[in-house]
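input
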Amino acid sequence: LGNMVEWHEDDKAFVQIVSKDDLKLKWRIELPETTSLYHLVDAHEVESDEHGSICLKVRIAEHEPMDRIALERQFADQYRVTEGERINAILKEYTFHLEGNGNG
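output
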């Protein structure tokens, strides 16, 4: 059970989006590469059409560069991170075009 949170470089990353009406999973989208984020900033619909398709914008505070080993070392002791080695979170925005039938 303890190794359920182990980092594996070859694992896939997914965005799971639930319906705002009933909170059931509606879309599960595989990302092209793994990411590490500090937290979700916000998400909002930009537009939708008569077929139920949605354009969803999501902003996250994403770690850059994405070096998981260095990031874990930094979080283990923030006071020992030397100048120039700190991994910061930068604001990134992603746009997802979601079809009303659950395809993304």
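quick obs: The beta strands are 14-18, 25-30, 37-48, 54-64, 88-98.
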